[in-house]
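assembly run, all chains below
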Amino acid sequence: MQSLSGEMAAAEHPLTCLIVDDSSFMRFCLRRMMDSFDNVVASEAANGNEAISEYERLKPDIVLMDIVMPGLEGVETVRRICESDPSARVIMISSVSYKEKVEEALAAGAKCFIRKPVTTDELRSAIQEVLDFDSQDKAGH
Amino acid sequence: MRLDLVKLFVISTSETLEELVGPSIEIESMRMQASPDTSGDVMAIISLTGDAYGKVMIEMNLGTALGLAGRLLGEDSRELTPLVRSSIAELGSMAIGRAISFINDSGTRVGMRPPVVMTKAGAPGYEDRFETLVATIKTVYGEIGLNVTLQSLA
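ok done. output:
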């Protein structure tokens, strides 16, 4: 098991994560990566609408979000999640990573963007960055 | 046919394979054909939309698909399960997503739809003829055929 964050690993409650991707292969890979971290519980959604209802139900600490999905695509899903919960911590993970799309995702409320294919180290760094940013933000207020 | 854009799909597919499967990737040939090559057992088809539109089809034989999927999944794959099909679809999605990112960054608006994986039996017949760039890319698991048809609205 790899440590994700000293604070999280020591916490009584696990870090909860919602994996959103229409690809069962990507959900399989991301879950395997998340399972390799200490004290993490991962759930899954296969499309944007499912992601919104699962987010409401689970209120996960972190969301890993794809962009190209049938039906409600990723950026619009992030926009809707962040409108209902501005504190949502969403990491976009997509192969579609041109400048305008990345900016669009960040403007919708995503905290960071990782280009596919993603490695375990990249995922760990991104989650760490989002968690650290959040704790610095809270400390600053 | 926007050959300048089409070649980006070949390069991106080769780079993606190199990143995912290993360094011994080789673009064996590139040629123009009157219609796509649908001879593979397994095909991932991705529709392109926007200022330039068309289709990309990645085709391979079953052994190559199982070998690639096994590498991507980190476990042996002996049949075309839904997870194996999904891994081939995602491989195509990553390769084409990379290409359209380059294309958009260079000023042409192109989007992609989620990939659809088909087997030879379920593949569409191409009665119409579409000028297609066909590239053969060699991997340690066998050859992959990349068919790109791209028309510009301009």
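Residues 6-140 of chain A form a domain with the Rossmann fold fold (CATH 3.40.50.2300).

The first strand of chain A starts at residue 15 and ends at 20.

not gonna interpret more than that til we talk
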